[in-house]
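Notebook entry, structure prediction.
Reason for the run: the old model in the group folder had no record of what sequence produced it. Starting over properly, with the input documented here first.
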Amino acid sequence: MLRPFRSARATSTIVAASLLIATPAVVVPTLGAHNIGPMAGVFAQAAGQPTITKTKWLSDRHVAIWINSPAMKCVRQVQLLLPPTFKSNPRLSYPALYLLDGMRAATSYSGWTKYTDIIQTVDKAEFITVLPIGGAASFYTNWEKSPEPKNAMQWEKFLTVELPNVLRNHWRVNKSAGVAGLSMGGTAAVNLAERHPSLYRFVGSYSGYLDTSSDGMGEAIDQAMREVKPKYHATQMWGKYQSANWRAHDPKLHVDRLSGKSIYISAGSGNTGPYDKPSQVEGIPENTAAYTLEILSHLTSKTFVSAAEQANVRMTVKFRPSGTHSWPYWQFEFKQSLPQIAKALGLPTVGTTPGNIQYNDSLSSYAKHGDSTAQSAQSAQPAKSGKATPTRKPYHAPAKVAAELNKRNPNKPIPYKTPKNNSKCKTVGDIKKYLKGYPAIAKAAGHCQTDEYAVPGGRAQNFEHGRIFWSPGTGAVLVKGKVDEAYKKMGSSGSVLGLPVDEEHKTHDKRGYYQDFQGGRLYWSFQNGAHWVRGTILDKYRQMGYTSGKLGWPTSNEKATKKGAVSSFEHGRIEWTAKNNTAKYYKK
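New structure, fully documented this time:
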């Protein structure tokens, strides 16, 4: 498991906020308050189906349309850049690229047409470039509570249902689509693609913020919004920080949903680049706002890419050694990604596509369930050879094993000797059968590094990316990545956890991983690192929904108290009383 670099937890809120509130007013100095609010569009009482209320040709192939949106409860402007054959061949339908603006999106034009040469860049492209107008500080998402009295702020519904249906019915758009954006629009583009994976073939983020739920990011986003729109609050958008809805809109947590798509992720380092004016400090540009914003974009994009690597999701990644949070670099990256976009979207098709898309929030219920993946799997019979991982019967530690584990001191594990690496090592017996029966596990483990050796309770063998433990009662089980690092640090099978009894699983909220052992469960996440939970405390934690419940993730290992023990979590703690073997929850 790859753990990407992130700022120290104790300072991340301050750092993230200081970066984000420096919104790019300096980068786009011509945007005045008159262009930023109230939200663009002719307000109207919208009901029923979306309809086009006005069309204005800005040039032969650049057109603005106004759509009466029932979802938004107002009229929205959208501009289209049409392909060269659009008028000459009315039998053709075209792919669409939805290109989103940044935090200070204006009310009457797209930053893409004002600050880049997008019109010339896509002049020969065989797709329609779709430019939604407005949306400053909106993150192009569905808001839980709209701060606008005449705008419902249901951007996701507008962009994924109403607008595509209108374009299919009236502007000859076919089923092939991509979505991309800069800065805030990059965040939105990835979120939209993850939440509606069937709609898009391509997704692109140019300097987007692709980690929205790590420490301090919610507060930073709130500060950024209020810099542009003083009446906006991030909690009006996705609810309380760290809530299920925030996690449902964190790109890094759902990157697996982009598997198979064409993806382009880019960011600069913030240092002075070819389009920046240098300051008196070497390597630092004069525009400090653009400098700090790009640092944050770079760090969060790297976190996203690390999560993608863990999920085996392939993508084009361009982390430049210089460059700031500014339009010249977004223009550059768009041009770099254009061949990939064109290849992903394909060519125009003959005939029309009906506008019959229905709204489906595919992530609306993911956080309502506990981490039950392994539990449901374990209730089945062992799987046949060839499946990704075994499905195992529920493990119940024999009384003798449980008693022995309970006596162990968490700070003094049973020692064992690990052999040196051996280039001539071989896998034999049940471990060999395990790897042969499950090729995905064999691939994850890599080549052997040692022969088998004795460990407390059984045997083990080291591999490139982890270790496989075996005993007659537990069978062979792989422990890998960050979970294995934490397991090794606490003493492996000589610790209070004993031997592994099931493979690693992704938690239901997709923030990290967990693995079950004879003596408890070990959790690991980007934000909180690795912590173990066991016994009656683990039973209480299960009753409360594990990581998806009100407690959130564990933030400490179990600690002894005068009456028993305590485990701390993001939003509270569970205390165990040894006298009557009971566990009680306390809110933070």
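Summary: Residues 288-310 form the longest helix (23 residues).
The old model has been moved to the deprecated folder.
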